[in-house]
Write a structure and sequence with these properties.
The protein is of the alpha+beta class. It is 21% helix and 31% strand. Helix 10 crosses helix 11.
Length: 722
Amino acid sequence: MVLGKKKTETSMNKPLFYSLKNTSRKKISSKAIQCCLFFLFLFSLNQSVISSDLDPYLWLEEVEGEKSLAWVEEQNEETLTRYTQSNAFKKKYERIKKELNDDERIPSAYYQNGEMYNFWRDEKNVRGVWRKTSFKSYLKDEPIWEDILDIDQLANDEGINWLYKGADCLAPEYKRCLIRLSDGGTDAVTIREFDLEEKKFVKDGFNTYPSKQNASWVNEDQILIGADFGEGSMNESGYPMQVKLWNRGESLEEAKIFFSGSYEKIFNFPFVSIRPDGKYYGIIEGPTFFSEVLHLFDGEKLIKINLPQMIDIHGFFKESLILSIEEDWGIFKSGSLLEINVNSLLANSIDESDVKIIFEPDGQRFISGVSIGKHQLMVSMLENVNGKITRFMKKDDRWDSKDIEGFQNSTMNIYGQDVWSDNSFISVSNFLEPSSIYHASDGADYKKIKSRKNSIDPEKYRVEQNFVSSADGTSIPYFLISRKDINLDGKNPTILYGYGGFQISKPPSYLGGSIAEYWLNSGGVYVVSNIRGGGEYGPAWHQSALKENRQRAYDDFIAIAIDLIEKGITSKDHLGIEGRSNGGLLVGATFTQRPDLFNAVICGVPLLDMYRYDKLLAGASWVDEYGDPDNPEEWEFIRKYSPYQNLKKGIEYPEVFFYTSTKDDRVHPGHARKMAKKMTDMGSPIVYYENTEGGHAGTSNIDQFSFLLALQLAYLEDKLMN
């Protein structure tokens, strides 16, 4: 069980080749008030700054508003008429869907109590089916699966567009589970107790109403739950402020409050760690998006543990807490993986002798993930944006390490690890080879157990890692993938993908046969950037592009674009950029700053109005990434890159393809809507598509994803290949 934040972009909607909330402003600090007159003067000089009261497009923030939905329908109709009527589009769409529904796909599965569990989608199971098989059966080419929960049937029976969001089963028996279901793909979920033996929901069990919530088993008759308990129970970011200890048989309203945080804190995450060597539970509190405060239950009360806040808590191992630090702590370097005895934590008497170093970064390798087994730790790392995995085993009072050998220029992920048996799995892939699954038990060497037939001939393509100097001289890496035999003559259609935020790394990821066929084989070039803001080179790489330094990420991205042009790989007429979520903000800032560099922009589920982002849905939780627009000093650097505020009449912008989801309750669809509408009113043509479901993923099933990908390909071919 991973207790800390996951630094991953959680979405089915990989990159291409890869209700109106509070509208009032928060109270301004006394320091801000002192600066108010000065900054009002500055604002008056900047004609691009539009206050929330004067924003003529606020009506588009009304997610289900009649007027806003009518506008969305009109835009969708124009886009679909333009791109989806041809036989070529239909062929792409069916080709992509066929590949993604291929029965020869590796069934991603996790080990639990001697069995392998998988969630499977295909043409028959559009919403998916949760199923299981024995480990012995899983090793076969065609495992025999036993269906547990059919989401399509459930949705049909209840008349709700349910999407499966995962299950948490009570160890070690794994008889009872908490199933998370989302209506249309929203982050808000309904939790229902499920009997794994009977394969049915527990009628009078732990069942909740929809909200953004987390729950963990304490024992068969108790759970810890953070949810919307009514007025005053949610924080300004729209996440639970309170956690209750809920006993079986009582209503959720009757349950006693276990922990209560403050309105300004980002999250309060209840956790329970149940292992062969003990049980621990409590709360991980997030004062900011990137900090964690541990509250540990000692059997009688919660104890706030005195640790640095810039940490990532991974879980418990025997009698110790395993964590990594994201800033220097005494003699311990930022990026180190540490072990601290629980008794020392509870006594709040930690000194350097109580802390043991498991791994210390050496300037080459940086931690990207940690998985805790029964007797071992599996740690995934990046070395110059290439994946590595190291196994750590404790002997007496020291940690011995062993690298998993045999893989070059690949992404290596810890696919799953069982804390009761040390059965562990890793996946290995790269741009040109799909994932293969390797298994090991009890410290033995890993053996390949699953691989998929490659729909790409790797010999036809080349992968290069290049570096370019950014505006401040920092060396920025990027990957370039193309056919070996094409002539890089400055006319090659090229898509440059980026993210650059929240310490999320972008290592090599399998492109897929459809992309090879419709992009690379047509002479296209695909580029993946590893700009600052990500986690490719540890916490410092991320922290170097926070808040007032945000422009560095955009400078890095622009530097790569210029490098591609100067090297004669592509040109302005044939260069496009793509990003989603924070990556949507990246491409939005980039094309408004340098419209002269690009002829195509794919801007997916984006943040764009950075004056109001913290007022919309989960936006308040990202202030430590971007800064606070209510603080005049911080708005001064935010406004310089905020795409929505920096649109100017008379500028020739590329025709941008915006896409979002009506059901996105993380990044408000109003960002994309308002930007698109503002651009059209300025006379700048745009392409717009809004899926009615899908949440922040933008799509909710394989069919929708295939359609969106085909739509993006049609747009890119139109803009860059003609």
